[in-house]
Amino acid sequence: MKFQKGQSGNPAGRPRGIKDRRIAIGEKYRNMVWKKIIELAMQGDVRALQMAADRCLPKLKSEFEKVTLPKFKNAKGYADEIVRQVAAGNIAPNVGRDLLELATQQVSLTDLEELQRRIQEIENETFVAPPPEVPKEAAGAPRRRRKRVRVRMPR
């Protein structure tokens, strides 16, 4: 059975526009809680101060920053240049950190590709074809196990 358009599947359910109880309770006590947090922060409570700062002050996020670096032949050259630019104040420290992380990941990928190439070369050089399988008929009848004989020596 399909639902009728514009008709609720649960007519006895929560009416529209009614807020959740948690939200209603939060709105009722919000001002009182904030007054207490600010009071504790003014008295020197570090946790209350941290909570107030986290809620009132927006966290700083890095902005898009275009960075131009000269061309180098290796990642060490790029890393040295990034550190030099950060020290000179031309690049923000968090952007420099992100660039160094990218350079490190690039080096790891390059090293991985090099290792894969070397392994492939070694495998190609030392590959020995497996011996051909011998049919069971040609191998002969299965071997019988020998019976063990214990010999006791007189004393």
Per DSSP, the total helix count is: 5
Beta-strand content = under 5%
Euclidean distance between termini CA atoms? 98 Å
SSE-based structural type: mainly alpha
**Computed Rg:** 38 Å
- What is the strand tally? 0
Low-confidence stretches: none
Summarize this, please?
The protein is mainly alpha-helical and 155 residues long.
Question: What can you tell me about this protein's structure?
Answer:
With 155 residues, this protein is an all-alpha fold. The chain has helices spanning 21-42, 46-56, 75-88, 93-126, 136-139. Among the domains are: 21-56, no CATH class; 75-125. The protein has 5 helices and no strands. The N and C termini lie far apart (98 Å).
For this entry, give a set of tags.
5 helices, mainly alpha, extended, 155 residues
How are the SSEs placed, and which strands pair?
Blueprint: H1 21-42, H2 46-56, H3 75-88, H4 93-126, H5 136-139
